[in-house]
Amino acid sequence: MATRIPRASGAMRKAPQQARSRATTDALLDAAARILGERGWSGLTTNRVAEAAGVSIGSLYQYFPDKLALIDAVRQRHFDDVLAVLDAASNPDRTRMQRVADLVDGMIAVHSRYPAAHRVLMEESPRGGDSQPARDHFDVACRQRYDTLFRVNVPDASGSTKRIGGQVLAGALSGAVHEAARQNQLASPVLRAELLALVDGYLSQARPATPARRPRAGKTGNADNAGG
Q1: Is there a domain that residue 128 lies in?
Q2: How many domains does the chain have?
Q3: String of b and e for 27-66 (b: at least 16 CB within 10 Å)?
Q4: Containing domain of residue 60, as a range?
Q5: How many CB atoms lie within 10 A of CB 151?
Q6: Is residue 10 in a domain?
Q7: Are 150 and 203 in contact (CB under 8 A)?
Q8: How large is the average pLDDT for residues 199-215?
């Protein structure tokens, strides 16, 4: 479990505005993610990050007050990348199969970006006191995008199915991708094929206009006579 740090840390000092500044912060975040994956939270230092990124420690501190701020920025970049994949996979101008491929390939690519760091981010690294609102915002935005994705790909589904369908798809795909990352299987063509089959099968299956209600307990035909 990640440790919670109850203080106002984890925030960037300033956001990069120019291309050169964005290149610097991207290099710092890449270096932080790489070191985090190789050395873990305890082995991550701002000096190591600056050296690996090829920038001065002073330049690092222009943007990030401490290593906690660096890690929260790495985590936020991951959130942004996931949301961008979901937006692309909801493009109504693409065919359904193209959207399915965009979703699967995009999720594999996002989680293949420093997969060891992703594990540390989820399981080991502390989080600043300001990081929970960012996580909450991501969770809400992610649910909304999965709902949109489901509606675009299953436009004839009933209202109740649309409300639940995105949630089911999110849980299935996220769980499969995260487990593949832990098992170092993200580059496997078999994994990609299975994920395509999973998503396409779920989105393309026929659904009744009104989902059947579960029978009430004791109302099934021969329930009282059933063995066991």
Answers
A1: yes
A2: 1
A3: bbbbbbbbbbbeeebeebebebbbebbebeeebbebbbbe
A4: 19-204
A5: 16
A6: no
A7: yes
A8: 76
Residue pair 146/86 in contact by the 8 Å Cβ criterion: yes
Q: Report the alpha-carbon distance of residue 196 to residue 189 in Å, rounded.
A: 11
Note the pLDDT tens digit of each residue in 30-69.
999 999 999 999 999 999 999 999 999 999 999 999 999 9
In a domain, 145, yes or no: yes
Q: What is the mean pLDDT of residues 200-209?
A: 83
Q: 90 and 152 in contact (C-beta within 8 Å)?
A: yes
C-alpha span between 144 and 115 (Å, rounded): 25
Encoding tokens for residue 29?
Answer: 């975040």
User: Looking at 9-18, 19-28, 43-52, 103-112, which range is the least confident one?
Assistant: 9-18
Name the pTM for this structure: 0.81
Residue 107 contacts residue 85 (beta carbons within 8 Å)? yes
134 falls within a domain: yes
Q: Which two tokens stand for residue 11?
A: 């925030």
Spatial CB neighbours of 24, under 8 Å, sequence gap ≥ 6 = 16, 53, 55, 59, 63
Q: Dig out the tokens for 44 from the structure.
A: 């991550």
